[in-house]
Structures are given as C-alpha cells and as structure tokens.
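Late entry, written up from scratch paper. The run itself happened at the end of the previous shift, but nothing got recorded in the book at the time, so transcribing now.
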Amino acid sequence: MIVNMRITSILLCFLFLSICLAWVRDDYIDVAFVATCELSSGNIILTGNALGEHSLILVLILNSNGDEILRTCLGYGISYDLDTLSDGTIVVCGGLSEDSLSPTYSFVARLNAELDTLWVKTYRPFVNSEGSTAWSMSVKNDTIWINSFGPLLDKSFAVSRIDRNGELLWNNVYGRANTVNGTKTIPSASNSFSVLVLETSGSFTYYPEYIHASSGSGTIICSTEYSHYPDTAFQIFNIDNNEYGDFYLTGCQNPGTYYLDEFCLARIDTCGSFIWHENYPLHGPRTKGFVFQANPGLIDIFVISYSSHDYPTLLKCTSSGDSISTVRLLDEMPWIGDVQRCSNGDYILCGTDYSNGFLMRVDSLGNQVPSMVSEGIIAPKIAFTAYPNPFNSKCRFDMPVNAEIDIYSLNGRLLAKVDSHNKSWSPDADVPCGIYIALLNAKKSTIAKKLLYIK
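Output as recorded:
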C-alpha cells in the first residue's frame, strides 16, 4: 500500500509539473523563428529560417499546445513576417535568393491551410538596386502591405501595396542615405497608413522618422523626425496602434550608456507629435516593446532587449502609461522575433536561443500554462462604471458581484479597497486632489479607470 501511494504521489507530481511548466519549446535544431500568429482553428502558424551555410525558408503549423502538425519549405532565402487573409489563407514575406546566398528579390507567398503554395510573387521595389528583402507585412481588408529594404550599400526603404492575388498596386521609396529598415506599416480606417522609418549613425544610435501617408498612392501627408527628442534622444524601435486611434512608440532612453538605458513608452498623434512619454526601470540598450490592448484602459507590453542586457518582461500599464506590474517571463535571454496575442488572451512568443528555434506560450498574466488551462483563467470581458467622475467627496461604483476595486495613487500607493457591498470610495481628509487609479479585479481579469478628485 505504501509503495502504491508513493508511485501515485510521483505520478501526480509529474502531472503537476507537466501542467505548470508548459509550455516552452526549444527543440527545433538550427532554426530561428521570426514571426507567428494564431489561425482561426486555434492552431499556430510560424515562419523561420533553417540556419547553416545556406538559409532555407520554413513555414510550420503547430497545435495550440506546441506540437507540430505540418511544415513546408519555400526555398532559399530568408523570411521575416506572415499574416492571414479573410479566407484563412496564409501570406509570408521576405527575400528570395537566386544563388542561395544573399536575397535578390522581395517576395510574398500565399499558402492554404494545408501549406500548399498557391502563388509566389517577387518584387523589385528599388529601380537601381539588384537586391531587396521584404522586412515586414500588414494585412487590412485583404490588401497586403510590405516594407522592403535594399542592399547594405544602398540602405533604401520602400512601402509596397499589393492586392490579395499578389498584383502590385503601388510602390514608394522613403528615407535618406542612412536608412536601414522600417517597422510594420499600420493601415488605418481613414484611407491612410503610418510607418516608422529607422535610420542609423554608428553602431547603435537610431534616428527614426514617422511617416503618415495616403493609402491610395503612398504620398506623404505629414512626417516627423525624432533625432533630437527628448533632450537625451529617445531611441525608438517600434510603433503600435492604440484604442484612441493614434499610436504608441517604444524604445529606450539615453542611448549609448549601456547599463543606464531605460525602456520608454510614448503616445503620439497621427502626425507624429508627442502627447506624452514615460520611462520604466527596465534596462538594456536597443530595447523594443510589443504593445497590445488587453482590456479597455489597460495595455500589455512585452519588453525585449536585443543586446542581451535584460530578460523578456511583461509590463502591464494603464492606457495612459501608468505602470501596474512587471513579470519576468524567463531566467534566460533568447532573441525574440515576434509576439502575438491569441483569441483567448494568451500570447505566443517566438525567436531563437541562438542555436535552436524558441517558442513560448504564456497567459495574460505571464504564466507558462497550456491552452486548456489558460482558457479557464482568462475571464470574459468585464466592466464597471465610476460616478460622478470628477467627484468632490464620494465616488460610487457599479461593479460585478464578488469583484474588488483597489484605489491607487499615481505613485503606486494603495489607498483603499472597495468591494461589491460598499461600492463607494470617500477619500480621507489627508488625500490631496488629483488623479487616482481604480483597478477592478474580478475572475482574474483587471480593468483600470482614472478618477479625478476635486474639492
């Protein structure tokens, strides 16, 4: 009986570990993953490159638990990004090679859900250059946008708009002599698009230019250079849209002083003017953030340092940049090529540990759990109201049953707790007028609202 109980205990321990430690995959030998997204089936699509003397372009489909289902090879070259069209077909972009060495043409390939190739189209966005690579891709209303950069000695940058059949609608070249590449193009609902063009001077200093242009022709509507903003140069690496219809920029502050750089988040309007910017004590040069709208009023930011000076971190903030929490995702520093949000609130991270392909799935709190567990802890969308707001003596809340609201000052001090029985907050006499954060916690979901206290 004692032996049987011990065996049972051991089996239960293994079962517990298999749940709590899932899932990180790093057993794809000599592969670097660069882009991922979730398919409508719940499966995961990945593209990456087989490392070695000659680079091969790989596309894989995994199930929601990270087990491989299908794979295909698109030939010699390098892939950089992928997305899906409305019919569930997959589009991949990168650079194809004629000699199996350096990329010769930018390409887009379209595949079906069984990874059969429907078509491959090549593009030469730079008239006077013999080489180009499609660096990133966006899809909106089944129109494909690719950003390409030229050969190292040219350093041009171009945006191309392509229809669902791969036919080129237009192509525009942007940037100046030092241009290296650009971020993903963000098409808007107002027949325009925005993109960040990145330029270099020396090894690490980047001088970005924000471009807002017409979707119909690529003609620039307005643009902003960030060479000297703020005083000590905000080194910008990425742009993401937000719930307000404008954009977040992410990067680092104080470039050039390796161990003092801090992660920086800024909000800009559609012409690139700064609305605000915040610094956070997450260190490392060449720091990039992937920003996602988690809930109304809340954002999740995956902070990645590309110089191996800090660990991948999940930073949770209000939409106005007020920090709520940080979670270190790993005790190692892999190169992360892409982060994407799943339909159930999980996130997929892909990249390489510098020798093998790296793939990781975490829930919205940064926990490594299998999808059947994370689906159970990601609650449906919840909401609450605060009134009056602004208020001068008491603020009342309409909130779900069994929920709790924490009231914080902007410096992170917890001032009060409100439950679904008292449903109100009356600030103490020593609480000054100002802005406070009400953070609702219910069924492991969180929503934040700003409260304005006046007297």
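The chain has three domains: 23-173+334-372, 188-324, 385-453.
(Scratch paper discarded after transcription.)
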